[in-house]
Amino acid sequence: MLIKEMPLTERPRERLLKYGSSNLSNEELLAIILKNGTKGVSVKEIALQVLKKVKKLENLKDINIHTFDNIKGLGTVKKIELLALLELGKRIYLESSLLDNIKYNNPNLIYQANKSLFIGLKQEYFYVLYLDTKKKLIERKLLFMGTIDKSLIHPREVFKNAYLCSASSFICLHNHPSGDVIPSKADLEVTNALVKIGKLQGIELVDHIIVSDKNYYSFYEKHLI
Which superfamily does CATH assign the domain made up of 103-218 to? Predict the structure, then answer.
């Protein structure tokens, strides 16, 4: 049944207004986000197909632009809007009290708080976490994408942003899409360069953490910093 053929009291938007968002089903909430269906297919049916595809709601966090290619009525625009909304949800979570209250001196906590940044990525992303004198987060900044290489990760960019946010120290965080978190030769070279320059500049590199979906490698824990 198309939404316009449903009684007003059964339409997702009207139900949200009457009962509140917390009382709607996953299917109804997703239907509101997707807005409308296509010829012969209601938006609720599209929402149901999306949920069947991911099997569990938590798997929505792992989708990409091609996950729902075979679902009729879910075009590029709707996919982009859905991805944008999910990314915003991730950022809301990351900006929550978990990040506000964490003291960035524990590699495992740092990994747990930031690992969702790397879900589903097929290339390496290099973030820098800038900290104040109490090891609290000032800013998290994505500086580089692609294969990690000393010539690409220029210390100038790392320290320029440290000065701009008045950071006292920083932590580097990047992923290995292969799942193998053992540092490469380039990882070691980059880390050593940042340690040396950090000592000269008075802005300490606290740790460099390499992450995968299920594991991490901390240079600090391995006594390499």
Answer: Cytidine Deaminase, domain 2 (3.40.140.10)
Give the three-class secondary structure for 41.
Answer: strand
CA 31 to chain centre: 24
Q: Alpha-carbon dihedral of residues 170, 176, 182, 185, nearest 10 degrees?
A: -80
Q: Is-contact 171 110, C-beta < 8 A? A: yes
Report residue 145 as tokens: 């994408």
pLDDT tens digits for range 40-63: 899 999 999 999 999 998 888 888
User: What whole-number distance in Å separates Cα of residue 156 and Cα of residue 97?
Assistant: 31
What is the C-alpha to C-alpha distance for residues 123 and 117, in angstroms, rounded to an integer?
12
Q: Which two tokens stand for residue 99?
A: 């990040």
Q: How far, CA to CA in Å, does 149 sit from each of 125, 152, 153, 170?
A: 12, 5, 6, 19
| pLDDT tens per residue across span 92-136 | 766 655 555 567 778 998 898 888 888 878 889 999 999 999 888
Q: Do the beta carbons of residue 38 and residue 73 sit within 8 Å? A: yes
Do residues 121 and 131 touch, judged by C-beta distance below 8 A? no
Q: How many CB atoms lie within 10 A of CB 202?
A: 9
The domain segmentation of the chain, as residue ranges, is 3-94, 103-218
Contact present, 29 and 53 (Cβ < 8 Å): no
